[in-house]
Specification:
The chain is α/β, with parallel strands linked by helices. Helix 1 runs antiparallel to helix 4 and helix 3 packs antiparallel against helix 4.
Length: 238
C-alpha cells in the first residue's frame, strides 16, 4: 500500500515457538515490586534482596507464610513474620489475577492462530505461583516458573526448560522480554532468536542480532507467514 512504510522482517522464518517473559513484558509491574517491599522491611538494599531471592526463593515452591518465616529467621527478625506474610500473600494474589498490557491478549491470540506454540517463563518467587493458570494466559501452552524448573534466567538451563517442554530446537524458538541481561543475553547465549521489548522507548542500543519492539502488536506482523515447514526452512532475513 502506498503511503505506508514497509515493516522490515527479521530472519525468523524457522521460528515455530515463542517464549515470553512475564513482568514488564506481558504483565504490568507493580509500582513497588514485592522484592522491594521485602528489602524495605528487612532493611537491606534492593540489589541485596534480589540476590537473596535468586539464591533460593526463586528456585523452589514455598508458601508465603513459610518464606516469610525463613526470611524473618535469616535476619533474626521474628517480629516481621506477619508483615512479610502479608506482602507475599498479596504478590501471590496478583499473580493469579495479573494486570496484563492492552496488547497482550490480541497479540497472543493472533500468534496462536498462526500456528505458533506459545510459552511464558519467569523468575518468580516460589510463593507467588498461582494455583491455576490465569485466564489472561489462555493462549499460552504453559507458563514456566523458575521455582518449578529450579533455574533462573539468564541461566542456560532456564531456556533449556522451554526446549524440553516444547520439543523444539533453540533455532526454532524466539524469546521476547524486556530485560537485556535476563532475557536477551540469556536467550541469545542459548541459541534462541531474540526480541527486546522496549516499551518505554528508552534510548539504549539494541544488541546485534536482536529485534527491538515497542509493542507486542508488531509480532504477528513480523511472523505473519507462520512457521516454515522444516523442508523449506531458511535463515535468510526478510
Amino acid at each position: 500500500m502506498t503511503g505506508q512504510p514497509r515493516t522490515p522482517r527479521p530472519a525468523w522464518a524457522g521460528v515455530r515457538g515463542i517464549s515470553f517473559d512475564l513482568g514488564g513484558t506481558l504483565v504490568r509491574p507493580e509500582t513497588q515490586p514485592t522484592t522491594g517491599l521485602v528489602a524495605e522491611l528487612l532493611g537491606i538494599s534492593l540489589s541485596e534482596a534480589r540476590a537473596l531471592m535468586e539464591q533460593k526463593a526463586k528456585r523452589h515452591k514455598i508458601s508465603p507464610a513459610d518464606l516469610a518465616g525463613e526470611l524473618a529467621a535469616a535476619f533474626h527478625r521474628p517480629d516481621l513474620v506477619g508483615q512479610l506474610t502479608y506482602v507475599l500473600e498479596r504478590a501471590r494474589h496478583r499473580a493469579g489475577e495479573p494486570d496484563v498490557y492492552d496488547d497482550v491478549r490480541p497479540a497472543l491470540a493472533a500468534l496462536r492462530a498462526q500456528g505458533l506454540v506459545l510459552f511464558a517463563m519467569t523468575n518468580s518467587l516460589g510463593s507467588s505461583i498461582p494455583e491455576q493458570t490465569p485466564a489472561a494466559f489462555q493462549d499460552l501452552t504453559q507458563v514456566l516458573y523458575s521455582a518449578e524448573t529450579g533455574t533462573v534466567k539468564p541461566e542456560r538451563a532456564a531456556f533449556a526448560a522451554v526446549e524440553d517442554t516444547s520439543g523444539l530446537r533453540p533455532q526454532e524458538l524466539l524469546h521476547v522480554g524486556n530485560s537485556l541481561r535476563a532475557d536477551v543475553d540469556g536467550a541469545a547465549a542459548a541459541g534462541f532468536h531474540t526480541a527486546w521489548l522496549n516499551r518505554s522507548g528508552a534510548d539504549i542500543a539494541t544488541p546485534p542480532g536482536t529485534v527491538c519492539l515497542h509493542t507486542l502488536t508488531t509480532l504477528p506482523v513480523l511472523l505473519s507467514a507462520g512457521p516454515t515447514p522444516a523442508a523449506t526452512r531458511t535463515s535468510e532475513a526478510y
